[in-house]
């Protein structure tokens, strides 16, 4: 909770100790409990979306199985890895702050920030591809003809024009130099071509999946942005040398927030990208 | 007990203007010092002023609604305006007034004092929550000026997604108000856990604190779900993400699950602090130790827990499955029990006491009467067979108002009169206090009791027009509403008058044993001049009445 | 709720240290633990990924959720310090999870129970694509 | 002072108790007629619901009298007055507290059970029930009979189990028949079922109980309970009115029955939509300055695609009637509009 009054009240002798606390320990415990309660509200906020997801997945399983193939497992997985790394750097940053290693702290915060940028960058690529193929929510769901074939080429901006490539091969371009065996990508490709040949198999109300996909990842994205602001602010305070003397509460709390953002993605990834 | 106080008379900070003693009111002059204050007492007062303003606004809407309903068909406004009126009346009264009413205004002021703490855990967050309240209120005002939502405060889809009024502005306002509510609750939980002096153990906490604790738990756990519900509603209206809109394949009944998962616990956010106030007042005014302290404390927490298991009783006719209907009906009755326990304990507290029937106590008595009716009529609505008939009729409207106005508002008035001397260091006119308390009681029953009857006779709620056969009930109801309005005006007048002309208040006018009465009226900026000594909050044996002070003081202390 | 009788906080284990000038009792996580958890998380991700190649029907969902939960527990315990913090914080966390389960559970139970009443694929506002 | 206050307050509050109690008693000899609390018992289900209602009412009255009685007694006996000192007594008593926890607990279980049993009676319809499709739309009820005939009132035969299949065209409505103690939401995208067996011939009020916008309180209809034999007759005479009546007259009936009348007057008064009077054959000013001649095609288009041309000064709120009115029905309505000269 960045608003927690950790800053020293002007007249105080003990630096960073607000007037209404008896000891730094008490102040630290209070701040920490406050942050955890804030995380509780975040969990319930997303809880609502998970509820919507559960209800619609159980009522329209075919929609979810069909539509999730339009998401790019590779990019999703990549983002998961990025977030996990950012969690590591963040946790390490807390350690650095506790050990008063200001330089390391600054570096690790910067690293975390860069990871966050990477995550958003990849999300942008994914969103852009969805937009291009009209894979949107509600009435805006207007998939271009045979989206199926192009879907795995979601990451077109990263790959050479996918048109000539057999369906599905596009997916691995992003990671592998040569087009070829990316099981996930291929699986998707075959399934889709199979479908696009007889449209009878395409379930109705596919837009529901994309509505939920955009709401969930969108809200999560907003939280990533908020996290970046928070980390940036911590970074500045570090450069100002505010965390040099063993005072690290803000870093600790910022870390908790960032890990929660990671936690939520850990569930979003399999639920949205890896439906079987 | 009050050893830390400088010798009484003139009392520490007993006076508002100068008079020597420095207190939280005169410590720092100027509007700016208020708008930037981190003092929980000042923030409490700011909240008090704001919520009273919104109560006035919501009250005006209520009077307009009752006037419109005086006759069937058009009386003073169009159907569209009427629909916006009752929507705003509901939204303003619930989200701007009742929810923050007791916790954020009275609670903010007394909680740290009762605990013997210097402030709440996060003073800045506390101030922020007030500014969030302000932002939310402004959003609602904006929507009010530019075509307010006509959806009812429940925002049911698909009506709320299709109507062409400013639903987004209204829901955004409520969304922002959610933050202020969450921040208050979060702050209180941490304060209660971390800021108590060593000697203030859990079971020495005043019951008001227990009530605020239970309330805060609900605020933190339930409000985010309302937030996400409103977010989904907003993206539905602005971008057409059809999660709740059947036209887009969405499920409107799911919206009702979302909405009531917050909004049922929310009614306990509204009533629990009220129960706390009652426990706080009934004991000193009976000069008796509260009966069954632990039972009352635990029942608050029990209500908080159970409140999350009963939301479906708002959906018995909505197409919810019979299975869920059964589960929710059964659980609903479970909530009745802790509430009953509290009532019996309050009655037992009065037994063999010496009852001082001053204004706060009169409100407590009318609370017992009105909340009794409100609670018992809840049985009709919890029971499946009868709810099918009564759901969405005036019976529900009456029940809701008996609990929320007869319960919460009355308790709020009780608390306001009880803590008024502590807040402003002045006594109000006891005579007018009692008269208006009686007027409120009579006016309230006249307004809402007929609504039970017309409800069970079939009059649906949210009706602009109605059949002739319901007319007489509506006329009674409107008459009562005017009577209540008069009573509220009287209250406003004598309270305002007391601020300037009122007799200076002693530190402990009622002879209460909770800590806030150990410090001056009004309290100093630091709350306590010495280290407060928490004891049994309902043991009055150490207190004696001192005519010189016109208040109570510690028996051991020299007058 | 014993946490309120405060002061003597988390026991410092292996890499325990504490900041003299602040006198705060905090546990400092050792690099070994940090990297270990990191590795476990990457492994978990790989597993979730691999799990989609084998077909367990409905089992896939539960497997994926199980792995995700395991990863979440790792993050909460070590990166978020729950392992060394006051148990009450973990309790708060669990309450939140419990609430979400309650909400999702009952909503799911009801929506599945009334599904027969729904008109299949009702969505007049949507013009079917293609 | 205090005493005088209570001197005045007491009669008021005791009078209230007496009122409720008296009312309860009057009602307790439950005839099927209307009582202080409840409307006529117009169906077999009603009696069951009322029995639960009065059962709870008596319990409630008992506890209310107990609470207020004790309160008033204490106020009179223990009010502080010169020389009155509080007498010592227990600050808690587990046995006592347990009793007043368990007794209400037990009672609530009973109330739940009773209410649930009657609820099951209400919700499980007999197999041979006569089915009628109910459609809610802003702000009108439509009742479709097995024959396909649509009426704006609910006609049923007495002593016959009737099952209603309820749905909605636009937003959520709620079909509410107080005399039958029946209420069920009409939710778009689903069919809700409710049943009753009417026992009292004549008309019974139908309300919309779920708020649905401007016309919510005018979304009324009647249940007409026919004595034995008459229902079939009534249905037969109304079933094929398009064949029986000249188009204009049939159109007049459809105008009243299919919801046109909710928004379009025939006397020149503008309401939610423009009036039908003298529309035909004239130029209609449209939103955005242009205008259009009101011929057959214009009227047909306005019915099927209401958003295509919006008359100046009105909101685009009319739902499409595509699939809700047959071609013949639309023609009949147009014929009717033609007859409405100023």
Fold and architecture overview:
In chain A, 66% of the residues lie in helices and 0% in strands. Chain A has 276 residues and is mostly helical. The longest helix of chain A is centred in the N-terminal third of the chain and has 36 residues, at 24-59. Chain A starts with 23 loop residues before the first helix and ends with a helix. In chain D, strands 3-2-1-5-8 form a five-stranded mixed beta sheet, with no helix packed on it. A five-stranded mixed beta sheet of chain D has the order 4-10-9-6-7. The longest helix of chain D is centred in the N-terminal third of the chain and has 35 residues, at 44-78. Chain D starts with a helix and ends with a helix. Chains B and D meet through helix 3, helix 8, helix 9, helix 10 and helix 11 of B and helix 1, helix 2, helix 3, strand 7 and strand 9 of D.
The number of helices of chain B is 15
Query: Could you say how many structural domains of chain B there are in total?
Result: 1
What overall form of chain B do the CA principal axes indicate? globular
Helical residue percent band of chain B: 55-70%
Distance between the termini of chain B: 14 Å
CATH superfamily of chain A: Cytochrome c oxidase, subunit III, four-helix bundle
User: Rounded to an integer, what's the Rg of chain B over CA atoms?
Assistant: 23 Å
β-strand number of chain B: 2
Instruction: Write the CATH homologous superfamily of chain B.
Output: Cytochrome c oxidase-like, subunit I domain
CATH class bucket of chain B: Mainly Alpha
Helix/strand structural class of chain B: mainly alpha
Low-confidence residue ranges of chain B: 1-20
Distance between the termini of chain A: 39 Å
A few lines on this structure:
The complex is a heterotetramer of chains A (276), B (559), C (130) and D (342). Chain C is mainly alpha-helical.
Based on the model shown, name its key terms.
heterotetramer, A: 276 residues, mainly alpha, Four Helix Bundle (Hemerythrin (Met), subunit A), disordered N terminus, B: 559 residues, Cytochrome C Oxidase, Chain A, two-stranded antiparallel sheet, 15 helices, 64% helix
